[in-house]
Each structure stands twice: as C-alpha cells, then as structure tokens.
Amino acid sequence: MIVIENVEKRFGETTVLKRINLNISEGEVVTILGSSGSGKSTLIRCINGLEALSGGSITVDGNDVSTKAGLAAARRRSATVFQLFNLYPHMTALENITLAPINVLKKPRAEAEARARELMKLVGLADLATAYPQRLSGGQRQRVGICRALAMDPRYLLLDEVTSALDPEMTGEVLDILAELARGGTTMLFVTHEVEFARRISSRIVFLEQGELIVDMPTERFFAEDGGFAVPRIRQFLTKMKKD
Q1: Coiled-coil stretches, from where to where (predicted)?
Q2: Strand order of the sheet with strand 2-11?
Q3: Do β-strands 78-81 and 156-160 pair in parallel, antiparallel, or remain unpaired?
Q4: Cα(222)–Cα(100) distance, integer angstroms
C-alpha cells in the first residue's frame, strides 16, 4: 500500500501541496484530476522521491521515501511513466527497457531481454527492439516508456500526464494499453486530463484544487449528480472539460 499522510510541499514561499492524505491499495486504479497547477504532478514526484517533502510522510509498503534506504526499497516496488518519455537517445528501445532491470534488479541480460521483448510484443512494438528513439513516433516512444516501467515488475505504476505530448491518435494507442493493464489488475496512480478515460478505468477519483485534496470518491460516485458533480468546483471543472 502507498500511504500518504499530511504531505506538504513548498517551493520557497509557495505551498504546492497542503496536508494531503491518500492511500492506494494493490489492485486499485486511482486517478488524480484537477486543473493545471493544482499539484498533481508534484504529488507523483514526491512519491517517487524526485521532490523532497516539506512535511508529512509517504510510505510504499512501509518504506519511508524520505530516507535513503526507504526510497531505494520504494523504487523497487514502483515505477514511473513520464509525460515526456525520458528515453536515452543513444540506446535502442530494447536497451532503454533492459537498463534498469540489469543494473538495479541485477537480472541476467538474457532474462531482462526476454522480458523486454515479451513486453514490446504486448504493446505492439515487437519489430522495433533495435530502433532508436528518434526513429519512433511519440506514441511508440511512450509505449517504450510503459515497457521500461513494467520491466521492473512494479507493484505500483505511477503515470504522470503520459498522453499530454501526444496527438489524438497516439493518445488512443497509449490509453488502450493502459486500459488493458488496468483490466489485468495493475495498480496505478494516474495523473491525467483525460476525464472520460479516467471514468472508464478508475476505481477512485481524487480531485486536487490549489494543492488541497477536496474529494476522494469511488468513480461512479464522483460523476454522480448527487456526488462529486454536486461540488461546485468539480461541476465547473467537468463541464469545462466536456466542452474542451
């Protein structure tokens, strides 16, 4: 379980996260919604240790991410897919996927490569193992990013606006992969603006507003007229997203 307790994050005088409390259990797909600047991506970066906490605590299966040993253990249990791919340009798709399993998990190269090829086949990239990132489309690069995360055999998959840099067709490709992972029971914490997709795959919806968690509801309840939609700020947000 990922346990987030009273988490605060400040950048100078600006408070970006304000006493966030949230739990994510294995098997859940929890989507974080909110307008730009609400703190969604910062929360993901705090979970994976890319941002230090200003207050509170985060544990991943009991491992405190604010300590060196705890963060190392947490990162062995979780993996992050970023919005801008972050692939190494001098490495092939296969090499990008196998780098961490070989160097962090100490898997034999043959085992890591076999798993990478299995994952690439799963996402429709079986013929592109030797391709470099510059030869791949945005959707293909993002699918390599997903494979790279899954190659670590994570209990938790953290997804930070993974479709924001993609065109509509590529977005559909990536969302189809994520929907399949959700159906297969992969635990995900998903930051997105894709409201209808969130509605389709999520167990719960969390809504952040100016760094505060104002709603944490089962998905069906979140979209109900007498549930999340009854909250004026959420109604405003959902109405605007529908128009867009």
Answers
A1: none
A2: 14-24, 2-11, 55-60, 63-64
A3: parallel
A4: 37
DSSP string, 145-177: HHHHHHTT--SEEEEESTTTTS-HHHHHHHHHH
Give the residue from 111, 189, 197 showing the smallest Cα distance to 154.
189
Q: Residue 50 gets which letter from DSSP?
A: S
Model's pTM, two decimal places? 0.85
Which structure tokens are listed for 173? 């490709």
Residue 221 φ/ψ region, left for φ over 0, alpha for ψ in the -120 to 50 degree band, beta for the rest: alpha
Q: How far is CA 1 from CA 17, 29, 110, 156, 158, in A?
A: 21, 12, 31, 9, 13
Count the Cβ atoms, other than its own, within 10 Å of residue 22: 20
pLDDT tens-place string over residues 38-66: 999 999 999 999 999 999 999 999 999 99
What residues are paired with 64 via a beta bridge? Answer: 59
For residue 177, which phi and psi values (nearest 5 degrees)?
-65, -45
SS3 30: strand
Residue ranges of the alpha helices (H) in 59-137?
68-77, 93-103, 109-122
Q: How far is CA 61 from CA 10, 18, 84, 158, 159, in A?
A: 25, 23, 28, 15, 19
Place of tokens 């470099």: 132
Indicate the Cα dihedral angle 209, 214, 217, 223, nearest 10°: -60
Cβ count near 128 (within 10 Å): 17
Which residues share a beta bridge with 24? 2
Please write the tens of the pLDDT for every residue from 181-213. 888 888 999 998 888 888 888 999 999 999 999
User: What 3 state SS string does 227-240 have?
Assistant: CHHHCHHHHHHHHH
